[in-house]
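From the shared-data thread, chain only:
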Amino acid sequence: MVNEVGTKPTAGTRPVVLNRSCMGANKQQNQDWFAITRLSLAQPGDQATLLAVADGHGSKEYRRSDLGARYAVRAFQDTAAHFFAGTDPASLPESVAKNEFPRELALRWRRFVVLQAANNPPDGALPDAAGEQKATSESTFLLYGSTLIAVLVAPNLFAAWQIGDGDLFFVGAKREPRLLLPQKGPDLGDETDSLCHKDAASRFRVHWQPNVRPALVSLSTDGLSKSFADHDGFRGFCVGLFERLERGDHEAVENSLPTWLARAANHSGDDTTLCALYDPMALGRA
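Structure, as tokens:
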């Protein structure tokens, strides 16, 4: 029920999909993961687009976080299919999106970790003679720590979920740019909410907006925003991306994106990932 989406933009009035990831300077492995897929809905031909980016924490304390990021994206895809496949997503109560959805997503992520850790114990311990494995400890989940930004774009609904840092940029039908779901509270440096926290489900920020069709939605890990001197610089980059797409420079944007992200990754020193969906048909709609 979940199908991969091609990445090459198409000129004209069809949606443009962009996705790219660059490893941070002096890093040995990219801890980010991303995917853009489609999900079949209730009405024949109706589909939702699912976008997700995850940022594994990467330090020694989180030495399996590259896997944690992959599991975060997969857990979102599976949870979205569980709640929305074959349905009208906008018919679900907002309370489901804010409560049940994050709980299910966090649970699925933990199940992936439990299975991987059981087959590859971090301490080298093997199951006993009866094939039993000790219960997974919270310190094991810590090894796989990851953030997640995830979006569902349906014909009559825009919904987003985020835990941890990273940036969700949105342009609506009236061309009003916004950063959605920013972290609250003081800047704590590299500390962030994570799926590895026991209470991860309660740490999700959720945006639920029926009858909205975004002209542009962009998800990026914090390696991109950290490459700018300030918040205004990052916002200017996002606005510029939208303006170039609106002018029809789709191929030029696609060709330039690897260079832009490589520069950001070199400047911030962090892995840098961006997924975006541009839909010119949404412009001008109330």
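The two ends are 31 Å apart (CA to CA).
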